[in-house]
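Table 4 source record.
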Amino acid sequence: MLVVAALAAVCGGGVELKEDEPLVAPPRAGQITGRIVNPDGVLKLLAVSREGGRALRPASFDARSGEFVFRNVPGDATYDLSLDMSDGRKFEGIDLGFADARLLRLAAQRRKQLGLPPERTHRFGMDDVRQLREFVAGMDDFMEVRRVLYVRGHGRRATMLVELMRTREFYDAGGTIIWRVELWYFENNFGGWDRLANQERVLTRLRVPPDQWKRVSVQYLPELSVHLDETGASEPVTFTIPAAGDISRGRLPNTDPAVKTEPHISGLDVPPAPTTQPMTGKEGERAKAEGESEKLKAEN
């Protein structure tokens, strides 16, 4: 009874409970604006959120000038523009930001507010890229072909765009081919890289006959990715539809399923080591003569 009375006294004493102020103001909606320099043949234009899967249609798109506007777009988010062409080609932006980047940013602000130390840092370099590529190459699963298209470092985190294929049925008459393009996310835990489970985002998934798959034409281009900040502001997009395809940025028609390409790498904190270029002309002849002289000295 004494405990109950004490609690009642405290409650009756007007003790006011207050919630912490929000770390940041709620994001505001904004616009995505831009221009396609050569818009002939554009059938459809969308802005797609890879995080939520939502596809937005433009409020206006001038097929002659190529100018477009998306209105009332939720802020503090990234959207990938998607263009479908009349000749079957497709161009898509690719959001290479890390999964739940906004939550990570808010968590960092909260740690600072509470006086807690920041999380462990890591300088992302080419050795990390090598480890990530080896991780993918060493996988043993249902999808036999894995081709890395993009790698972007975020310190101790990384984002990868990878093409996956099941090719056995491709070579069987009347079989089907399974083809996917996915975003994968990795974290570095004290020297080793781990792929985040159940965090992949599937951009494209097909299970079709080989003849149909051979007509696929899609390229993923970072310049078609647009970020709106907390105020809803974004940079306008200017895009020229390329005349030639780039197999390293996606998949082109009638290409070998097992084609080899080098990934596009960004987000390096450690610059790559310079490559040694062969010397030519008088400089090369002088270096060669000096090398032969040193060789003779060593032999004598």
